[in-house]
Amino acid sequence: GSGASFPFPIYGAWFKDFSKQTKGVTVDYQAKGSGAGIQDFTNNTVDFAASDAAMDDEEIAKVKQGVVLLPMTAGEIVLSYNLPGVKALQLPRDVYVDIFMGKITKWNDPKIVAANPGVKLPAENITVVARSDSSGTTYVFTGHLSAVSEEFKNTVGHGKTAQWPKSFVKAPKNDGVTATIKQTPGAIGYIEYGYAIATKQPMAILQNKAGKFVAPG
Description:
The two termini are 28 Å apart. The chain folds into two domains: 2-61, Periplasmic binding protein-like II (D-Maltodextrin-Binding Protein, domain 2); 77-214, Periplasmic binding protein-like II (D-Maltodextrin-Binding Protein, domain 2), CATH 3.40.190.10. It is 35% helix and 15% strand. The protein has nine helices and ten strands. β9 and β10 form a beta hairpin. By secondary structure, it is an alpha/beta fold. The radius of gyration is 18 Å and the shape is globular.
């Protein structure tokens, strides 16, 4: 199989356990991104594919052997960041939307400072890391931002790919975005919760619709 990198941590554990209990049977799963997985499945090069965004009618129609869609698991998208010395970072809804539209570009922007009293924020540029491939994680994340902001919906857009500002850094798959954030001081990006936990990356505390700041997990 192939597809989404989002569920790969749990899939890897499941497939390893399955192989231990089932003699002579192994499962090879390549976490190459939702879009690539759907393409592999359509081309009949894999037996199954995983995608965070369900296949639409147009995609299903291309699969001659037919398609069965099964919900497998659920996960959480977090905003991971690289700010040495900043252990807790609160981001209001309008602030993180503006960051991902390229409108807030400095970590010491007054809006970020106001949400983090007592936190020393550097006068550094914000390096936003987004996915370079066709991604279900991008589909889910841009869906949220589009629901929060009509401007985001009309400019960056909602989909497996998006019209990110040209200044953004791109990386493939969840592990690629995670590694880029970890290697880039001043970076922030969207990844699945399990990748942040596995690499001990800090995660922003985001404001919900009710106005409360909620930590991931």
